[in-house]
Amino acid sequence: MYALLRAAWSLCCVRLHVGRLCARRSASIPRLAFARLSSSFVQAGDGIVASIFYTTTLNSEPAASLHGGMMDLWTAAQALILGVVEGLTEFLPISSTGHQIIVADLIDFGGERAMAFNIIIQLGAILAVVWEFRRKILDVVVGLPKQQQAQRFTLNLLIAFMPAVVLGVIFADTIHHYLFNAITVATALVVGGVIMLWAERREHTVRTETVDDMTWSDALKVGLVQCLAMIPGTSRSGSTIIGGLLFGLSRKAATEFSFFLAMPTMVGAAVYSGYKYRDMFRPDDFAVFAIGFITSFIFAMIAVRALLKFIATHSYAVFAWYRIAFGLLILATWQFGWIDWASAKA
């Protein structure tokens, strides 16, 4: 397991080292800052991966799993699987939460301490999109004091973010208690897929080509539809992207703004959940968390880059059909009694 993680991390680091070398050839302060950032990031990652090895093989007492026993190969495999699922689905319009609920039930990964694990792997996915859009982020940060474009972009993000903050604080516990189950996920997958197909076949009038051209009203409308993603199976990225298309954003603008909006939204949710479940974070679970975090980061980066290339020449119809097929499969297995999804909860 250590060798597998070390190899995956090494592949990721190749890209970071290349970026560092390119940055050092330029005298600009932002690029030098990225060089230092990537260097620190690689060193931190090396430390995390190495610590997994020492925690799981060299310590006299192996790390405990999220279920209370030793972190055996199966526990590590569970963390790896869920990290892959989170990374691949978080930024695709197919609902990462829905897939986490389904897959976690299939591999018997649950309990209250699993909530802490879910927070960690979401942070891995967030870090991936931050790294992918690091140049845009730095441009905004550097230009924020003086550039009107950077100020407007930041204001739009805050406007789009606020509806999720307000409604999330009010309804999060109720939604988690009543709707976080496989049947709700399956229904939302099918309904969302049908809406996605309708939206794709509807004639679009593009008013906004780039995220820098968005108005505050565009941002507010996207922020409001993002709140639909509080229902598991809806998909945060799916609701914001399709909503953006319906509101006149170009395919590229809708997708990129969805990624940018994910940063404050997911960080805010992680901080809120992290504080709420703070007692669930145990030092013994560090190795499991590290496996999930690194895996989620790597596969989220792959998914983000693949999606940006895909939308340049394709529609979202393939994701809609996938949602419908997957949702119907879950409903069919439940209806015919092949799998007891009634107990599947996040």
Description:
By secondary structure, this protein is an all-alpha fold. The protein folds into 2 domains: 1-60; 61-343, no CATH class. The chain contains 13 helices and no strands. Helix 3 (73-89) runs parallel beside helix 12. The protein is globular and about 55 Å long. The two termini are 26 Å apart.
Looking at the structure, what is the overall shape?
globular
Count of individual helical segments = 13
Q: Which bin fits the share of residues in helices?
A: over 70%
Reading the helices and strands in chain order gives HHHHHHHHHHHHH
Beta-strand content: under 5%
Low-confidence runs of at least 5 consecutive residues? 14-35, 47-64
Organism: Pseudomonas amygdali pv. tabaci
GO cellular component, one term: plasma membrane
EC number: 3.6.1.27
Transmembrane segments: 115-133, 153-172, 178-199, 257-275, 287-308, 320-339
What is the fold's blueprint, element by element?
Elements: H1 2-24, H2 29-58, H3 73-89, H4 96-106, H5 113-132, H6 134-143, H7 148-179, H8 182-201, H9 216-226, H10 236-246, H11 251-276, H12 286-310, H13 317-335
Characterize this entry briefly.
With 346 residues, the protein is mainly alpha-helical.
List keywords for this structure.
346 residues; mainly alpha; 2 domains; 13 helices; 74% helix; globular
